[in-house]
Amino acid sequence: MAGSELRADIWISEYITPWDIYVHGITRVLAYKKTQYQEMYVVESGAYGKGLVLDGKWQSCTGDEFLYHEPLVHPAMLFHGSPKKVLVLGGGEGATVREILRWKSVEKVAMVDIDGDVVEACREHLPEMHAGAFDDPRTELVIGDALHYLDTTTEQWDVIISDLSDPIESGPSFQLFTKEYFEKAKRVLSPGGFFVVQAGPVSPSELKLHARIVNTLKSLFTNVQSYTSYISTYGSPWGFAIASEQAINTRPNPEEVDQILNERTTGGLRMFDGTTLLGSLNTAGHLRQAIATETQVYTLAEPPKFFGKGSVGQ
Predict the structure, then answer these.
(1) What are the Cα distances from residue 17, in Å, to 39, 81, 205, 310?
(2) What DSSP line would sit under 228-245, residue for residue?
(3) Other CB atoms closer than 10 Å to residue 223's CB: what's the count?
(4) CATH homologous superfamily of domain 66-293?
């Protein structure tokens, strides 16, 4: 290609739509395993550092994971104000737990991930992401099924964060974007609790998944809010949804948010602050319209199915 110098020998082709592919150039494979649940790579990329890839789908990487994990965690934590017990469903890299542990009020965080092989690979190869969070005395790591855990836990949780891989039909997560799953999570929320879920891409060609996840949450919760962050290595703006029986302030004062973060967290945030929160909650008009007109509710009988796997090749 004229004017270009390609430096990678391995390429991960991530299928975004039937007509779009995001190709990541890889310089080294650090770990590979076909686990009981999915195909896993831990890789080193040329532009964005080390990353986790599951079933050909880019999960997160050291170069821009903060653009995902900070907005996933901190809005719900901040809206609650003083969360003591937090449950993470998924979260293999440990970065979600890392962000939760920034909050001084947190006494316990339980992380439930079905794939122990992925967790161990991330513990070994991605210390930049978990930053020792697995070894924090407040952390309880559970290798198991999220649905089973929700059915059997006797505890109530101030914040529940659903940090799951995309709902690929052959993968382990597609059932965990349904009304039945959200009902189980709601049952174990404490009074005043907040539930948040990574809710898929929100580019114009891919709005339906996000709009339907939000609509599914609206069938159960009084207050649901969509918000977004642009994650570079996803090649797309990404959606999140927060739900609660408590009011959600969609016009927070940035200075007040900054003061709370300064007083109640240990700092170290790179992108999330009061101005960022205010901007992310001001959902764009086309996305609000898509959510407002959506009628489908995802159920176990009719779950979401994310488009295709990716592939790895030379």
Answers:
(1) 20, 39, 8, 11
(2) EEEEGGGTEEEEEEEEES
(3) 16
(4) Vaccinia Virus protein VP39 (3.40.50.150)
**pLDDT of res. 18:** 82
Instruction: Identify residue 288 by its one-letter amino acid code.
Output: R
Domain 10-63+309-313 class? mainly beta
Catalytic annotation present for 163:
yes
Whether residue 248 is predicted with pLDDT greater than 80 in this model: the reply is: yes
Confidence (pLDDT) at 174 = 66
**If DSSP states are collapsed to H, E and C, what string results for 95-130?**
HHHHHHCCECCCCEEEEEECCHHHHHHHHHHCHHHH
Q: Which of 189, 129, 197, 200 is nearest to 163 (CA)?
A: 197
pLDDT tens column, 45-79: 988 999 999 988 899 999 999 999 999 999 999 99
Q: List the chain domain ranges.
A: 10-63+309-313, 66-293
Summary mean pLDDT of the chain: 91
Q: Which of 64, 113, 115, 163 is catalytic?
A: 163
136-194 pLDDT per residue, tens: 999 999 999 999 999 999 999 999 999 987 655 444 556 778 999 999 999 999 999 99
Count of beta carbons in the 10 Å neighbourhood of residue 254: 14
Nearest to 195 by CA among 158, 141, 226, 164: 158
Can you read off the two tokens belonging to residue 296? 């489908």
Instruction: Look at the block and give the residue holding tokens 């114009």.
Output: 204
Residue 76, C-beta contacts closer than 8 angstroms, at least 6 positions apart: 83, 159, 161, 194, 195, 196, 242
